[in-house]
Structures are given as structure tokens and as C-alpha cells.
Specification:
With about 180 residues, the protein is of the alpha+beta class. It has helices at about 1-20, 25-30, 100-105, 110-120, and strands at about 35-45, 50-60, 60-70, 75-80, 85, 90-95, 130, 135-140, 145-155, 155-165, 170-180.
């Protein structure tokens, strides 16, 4: 009986440790860290859609991301430091925030600061995981977020697939690599 009780406690403790592994222990250290992510991305604003490759560099909490569409259909660079978006022709747009930039030029009101956290495995406590924690879902300000192919990388739970959608707006990321 004690053996089964001890096993039950160990399983419970292990499950709790895995459950909280996605929560950052030090937000400041994550904000100051450097991240490099490569991914395939699909974006749909309800009227237009496109797909391509995303390269994401985050240095001290500021992102510079490049999206390249296939077959020479164009590329765009988002620069959080300067709050700009620049296309491959050199045309540049400015906004008061990255969220405003995404809304005004891509037609999607993506919660930018939250997406930055979700990419790094910083998810809210109310994530509903499947039993082996390889997938999870949660809602945030009307957005439905699906995390798939969750794996532990360098002691942190990271989703290899992230789908963020609200109504007809949708962003899908299939992450190929992370470097920190």
C-alpha cells in the first residue's frame, strides 16, 4: 500500500513539475536573452493570405523578423526597435506599436507582445494540455491558441507548431529551429 502511495505521490510531483515547466522562472532573463527562430509561416487576414519562411531574431526583447514569400513574391522585415516594416522594394512603414503596424499593413490585430512570449514557451497558467503534454490550447482576448508538437528543449517546453486564430484571422507557425 505504501509503495502505491509513494508511486502516486511521485507521479503527481512529476506531473506538477512538467505542468509548470512552461512558466518562466525569471521574466527579466528571458527579456534580456537572444533568440533566433526559423519557421514556416501562413497568415490569413480573412481576405488575403500568404505563406513563406520566417526568420526571427530577438535581442534584448526587441525583434527583427523577416518573412519571405515563395517564388520571389516578396519579402518584408519587421523591426521592433524602430517600429517599422520594410518591403523588398525598400518601401518603409512606421507605426506607434508593432500591433498597430500589423493591423494597418497586414490587416490582422495580432497580440504582438504575447506572441513573442508564446514562441518562447511562456504560456499562461490556464493552458489545457493533453495527457502527455505534447499539445495544448488556450484563449487570449478572443484569440484561440493551439500549441502542437510540444517538446522540451534546453529545459523549456516549446511548441513546434503554433496556430493563433480569431474569426477569419489566422497565423500558423511551424518552427524548425530555436537558438538561444
Amino acid at each position: 500500500m505504501r509503495f502505491y502511495l509513494l508511486c502516486s505521490v511521485l507521479i503527481l510531483v512529476t506531473a506538477c513539475q512538467q505542468r509548470t515547466a512552461h512558466s518562466p522562472s525569471n521574466d527579466e532573463s528571458l527579456a534580456q536573452s537572444n533568440w533566433h527562430i526559423t519557421a514556416k509561416m501562413f497568415i490569413n487576414n480573412g481576405e488575403d493570405s500568404g505563406s513563406g519562411r520566417l526568420t526571427w531574431h530577438e535581442l534584448n526583447g526587441k525583434v527583427k523578423a523577416t518573412f519571405k514569400a515563395p517564388l520571389g513574391q516578396g519579402s518584408w522585415t519587421l523591426d521592433e526597435q524602430n517600429l517599422t516594416m520594410t518591403d523588398d522594394q525598400g518601401q518603409k512603414w512606421h507605426a506607434a506599436s508593432m500591433g498597430d503596424l500589423m493591423q494597418s499593413h497586414l490587416g490582422i490585430d495580432l497580440p504582438w507582445s504575447n506572441v513573442k512570449r508564446w514562441l518562447k514557451g511562456e504560456w499562461p497558467e490556464h493552458v489545457r494540455f493533453n495527457e502527455n503534454q505534447s499539445a495544448g490550447t488556450f484563449q487570449w482576448q478572443g484569440w484561440q491558441i493551439e500549441l502542437k508538437k510540444i517538446k522540451t528543449i534546453d529545459g523549456r517546453l516549446l511548441a513546434h507548431r503554433i496556430h493563433v486564430h480569431k474569426g477569419q484571422q489566422s497565423v500558423k507557425l511551424s518552427i524548425k529551429s530555436w537558438l538561444q
